[in-house]
Amino acid sequence: MFILTFPFIFLSTIIKNSSTENILKTLPPSIQDEVNLTTPEIIAKYNYSSESHNVVTEDGYILTLHRILPKKPYKGSVLVMHGILASSADWIITGPQHGLGYLLSDEGYDVWLGNARGNRYSKNHTTLNPESKKFWDFSWHEIGLYDVPAMIDHILEVTKQEKIFHIAHSQGTTTFYVMCSLRPEYNSKIRAHFSLAPVAFVSHMFSPIFHAIAAADVIVENVAAFINLNEIMPEGGLVSTLGQEVCGLNTLTTILCSNTLFAICGFDCKQLNTTLLPLILAHVPAGCSTKQLLHYGQEINSGIKLYEMMIVRKNTLLGHFRQYDYGFWTNLKRYHSLKPPDYDLSQITTPLYFFYSKNDWISSAWDVGIFAKKLRSLKGKFLISYDSFNHMDYLFGIDARKYVYNKIISLMTRH
After folding, report:
1. Would residue 360 show up in a list of annotated catalytic residues for this protein?
2. pLDDT per position in the chain (415 positions), as tens?
3. Fewer Cβ in 10 A, N or C end of the chain?
4. Which DSSP string corresponds to 186-238?
5. Which residues pair with 69 in a beta bridge?
């Protein structure tokens, strides 16, 4: 986690005498106020009709759904899920001409932007205090098992439909696979699912940041428990605050911020609108549990290591897509096995469409290929034609509409 925050600590020394007002002046005047606006407030600013809905999960977490009502004759509802450390804001902060939330609304879709437990919009519980360790005792497994089904059921109840569409990025795809594997009855509630940067098997993930977390998996878990570090990078925390105040200051800080993101997701200078960096980092990160990152670290450790990639056949499946590993004794108690069970991918029957890229350091093209061979309901697998497209370009890339969104909207008409 220190690896993620260090660049921003360094950047803060550069601008210690700079004010927030000066930083905001680096943003286009039309969006300066959006740094401090919530998702519904940004949506309303552009004259789209929006609503906020609270949903309570089976285990008591109170989630918030942000809804954008359709601007054209109604074509159906769609749940759009964010990735790790993110929120509903991901889909709208690039503006009406670029944000997927707006584009779907323009096409006549009833858009529901999800917020998983633990992010800035879903940090409540019916009985647990968000300051308590027990509140944060979840990974993306619980998000898939409880959060996504609760959101789907709420949308179906409100709209009186039998099925909806589902679109997700990164961890949002992981949680969808978890849901369909463990609660297969939800397959029939989805018209079609679209995975942007699918993440299930991660043996070939290249991101040095995630490999560093994986390498120190047990140490990080023990240290986090010792210092009671249950939440990672909350909205309004160090990274969020420094990011929005630093990244648009000057050429040097913009380059440093850009390279920090690229070191996690893959380098792609041409697709990043650097003038929007302070705005993006005002809304990302939005918080998650330590356990979410640790679970991905375990998945990496279940396969090959970064230094082994050059000597191991890349098309060989080495690794697992499985539940959280609590250690031998706790695994025996929870799973009646020394090792956690793999998710049963044969249970996934929803029509699936994958979008993936060669330069994604988190969702490796090799891993997507391995995963695709295990699915019987995959209807399409689309490699982005722009070779440098990275993990975050699905959200903030200048040409995300051209390479991804237009294709999704076209495919939705088939269902």
Report:
1. yes
2. 333 443 433 333 333 334 445 555 667 888 889 988 999 999 999 999 999 999 999 999 999 999 999 988 899 999 999 999 899 999 999 999 999 999 999 999 999 999 999 999 999 999 999 999 999 999 999 999 999 999 999 999 999 999 999 999 999 999 999 999 999 999 999 999 999 999 999 888 865 565 555 555 544 454 445 334 567 655 554 344 444 454 544 444 444 454 455 555 665 778 888 788 778 888 888 989 989 988 998 998 886 554 455 555 454 556 899 999 999 999 999 999 999 999 999 999 999 999 999 999 899 999 999 999 999 999 999 999 999 999 999 999 999 999 999 999 999 999 9
3. C
4. GGGGEEEEEEES--S--TT---HHHHHHHHTHHHHHHHHHHTT--EES-TTSH
5. none
53 counts as catalytic: no
DSSP result, 237-304? SHHHHHHHHHTTSSHHHHHHHHHHHHHHH---GGGB-GGGHHHHHHHS---EEHHHHHHHHHHHHTS-
Give buried/exposed letters for 390-399 (b at 16+ CB in 10 A, else e).
bbbbbbbbbe
* Cβ–Cβ under 8 Å, residues 295 and 224: no
Reduce the DSSP state of residue 364 to 3 states and report it: coil
Chain-centre distance for alpha carbon 231 = 16
**Catalytic choice (217, 268, 325, 360):** 360
Q: Which entry of 66, 82, 295, 391 is annotated as an active-site residue?
A: 391
First to last CA, the chain: 42
- Among residues 170, 195, 203, 364, the one annotated as catalytic is 170
Contact of 112 with 77, CB cutoff 8 Å: yes
> Distance (Å, rounded) from C-alpha 374 to C-alpha 394?
24
**Measured torsion, CA atoms of residues 259, 382, 199, 313, in degrees rounded to the nearest 10:** -90
391 is catalytic: yes
Tokens (6 digits) for 384? 């982005």
Question: Which amino acid, 170?
Answer: S
| Domains of the chain from N-terminus onward | 37-205+345-412 (3.40.50.1820)
Of 161, 27, 160, nearest to 95 by C-alpha is 27
Q: Which residues contact 134 (CB under 8 A, 6 or more apart)?
A: 128
**287 Rama sector, left if φ>0, alpha if ψ -120 to 50, beta otherwise:** left
